[in-house]
Design goal:
Blueprint lengths: L11 H16 L10 H8 L3 H13 L3 E3 L6 E3 L1 H13 L3 H15 L2 E8 L2 E10 L5 E3 L5 E3 L4 H9 L2 H14 L4 H18 L2 E6 L2 E8 L7 E8 L4 H30 L1
Antiparallel strand pairs: 1-2, 3-4, 3-9, 4-5, 4-6, 7-8, 8-9
Helix pairs in contact: 1-3, 2-3, 5-9, 6-8
Length: about 260
């Protein structure tokens, strides 16, 4: 028999659906989109107008959203940032390998990043970006890039079990129906490259070449580690240069993570 929430007529299934829809609303806020109204939320989520209106009020009351000065738009509230901070502090990966990533960025004069998946995007967990002035800009939480277009995303797909990978590819095919024939070939080429070389090379932004590989940890979703550089040299040539650097960094990261796991066991 379906359970019911104490003191209400609502079922646990109803509560779960409301939670999922509330999370979908929060995900509608992306970088560059600081404020949204109900109509824009409806368009981005596909939820009914009445559902959006009800859940927006709930999220405001819970401190996840706040109204703009006009009262007609909404923005993410500071509580959302506190959740990201708690996630970073609780990570079992970042404290262990972030120093290695920073050292590699300094030594090689490249950008080094670590990302994991969220819905249809890869989210940077850490990114050390080398500049000619030897200074760093660290992207610490939330920078998102498409799974299907990036080396990070394709390394993540490669690390999934076959059934889950097939599900993700079907979702991409639905989302990118018009581009799918060519995109499918490009993704498969990257998966083949990962099978053969242990990394894939992608240039999805003009003048930037990135190589990525997978970090596999027990009982965790795959993470993707990448090295990128701004360069106008041929993509394949840059891949052959950056790939061995990346695999060496991956090995050292995996070894350190395994040592940490043994020490805690």
């Amino acid at each position: 028999m379906e359970g019911r929430l104490k003191g209400s007529g609502r079922s646990f299934a109803d509560a779960n659906r409301s939670l999922e829809r509330g999370i979908a609303i929060l995900r509608a806020f992306r970088p560059g989109v600081t404020e949204l109204g109900n109509a824009e939320i409806v368009e981005r989520t596909g939820l009914a107008k009445a559902t959006v209106s009800r859940l927006m009020q709930t999220l405001v009351g819970a401190g996840m959203l706040e109204r703009s000065p006009t009262g007609r738009l909404y923005r993410l509230a500071p509580a959302v940032l506190s959740l990201a901070h708690a996630m970073r502090l609780g990570s079992s990966i970042l404290p262990v390998i972030a120093p290695l990533m920073r050292q590699e960025a300094t030594r090689r004069r490249v950008n080094v990043g670590l990302a994991s998946a969220d819905d249809d995007m890869m989210v940077y967990l850490e990114s050390f970006r080398y500049s000619a002035r030897s200074s760093f800009r660290t992207v610490v939480s939330g920078q998102r890039v498409p799974i299907e277009l990036t080396s990070l995303g394709r390394a993540y797909l490669w690390g999934l079990p076959a059934i889950k990978r097939s599900v993700e590819l079907n979702r991409i095919a639905e989302r990118r129906a018009r581009q799918w024939p060519q995109l499918r070939e490009e993704i498969q080429a990257s998966l083949d490259e990962l099978d053969r070389d242990g990394y894939c090379t992608v240039s999805w932004q003009p003048g930037v070449v990135a190589v990525a590989t997978t970090i596999i940890l027990p009982r965790q979703r795959p993470h993707a580690l990448n090295i990128s550089i701004s360069n106008d040299e041929p993509v394949a040539a840059m891949g052959r240069l950056l790939g061995p650097w990346l695999l060496d960094l991956q090995r050292r990261c995996q070894d350190l993570l395994q040592e940490e796991a043994l020490a805690l066991s």
